[in-house]
Amino acid sequence: MSALITIAEAVVTRLNAGDYSQEFTAERKYVPKYDLKDVKTLQVAVVPRSQAIARASRTEDYFDCAAHVGVMKKVDPDDLDEVDALCLLVQEILDELRGKPITDPIQAAWLSIANEPAWDPEHMDQLRQFTSVITVNYRLRR
């Protein structure tokens, strides 16, 4: 399996082992496309995003791999409590991934994490769907 896919799978495993304010089961996807009826329940998708390779030494390279974590759920945009609860869940996911290396099945150092967009205002307005994207980056050497 490629380093990028291995990283994405490790992110899924870590997310599914965590303790959160809302229940979900993260799944790895290539295209996180859902019908609106599917997002009536909370969906968390992990998508392999990118990899960059740079020379580490004469015999090894750095592989910087990124994965997206998408959090999606149909909401009433005017229900502040519901949207606030989803924002809290996104923060909990950020906290679960932040600063923690991957140790199984490969060794990868945590590099960074970002939450852009914190939520997608167009999805909220047009689809009445909360959509938040987290990007987490890891580095492995081989």
Please describe what this structure looks like.
The chain is an alpha+beta fold and 142 residues long. The chain has a single domain, classed as STM4215-like (2-Layer Sandwich). The chain is 28% helix and 35% strand. 27% of the residues are buried. The model has no long low-confidence stretch (mean pLDDT 94).
Strand order of the largest sheet: 1-2-3-5-4
Spans of at least 5 consecutive residues with low confidence: none
Name the quaternary structure.
Answer: single chain
Form type = elongated
Might you state the CATH topology name?
STM4215-like
* Tally of discrete structural domains: 1
* Distance between the amino and carboxyl termini: 14 Å
The strand count comes to: 5
Average of pLDDT:
94
CATH architecture: 2-Layer Sandwich
Fraction of helical residues: 25-40%
Order of SSEs: HEEEHEHE
The Rg value, from CA coordinates, equals 16 Å
Give the C-level CATH assignment.
Answer: Alpha Beta
Question: What percent of residues are in strands?
Answer: 35-45%
Query: How many helices in DSSP terms?
Result: 3
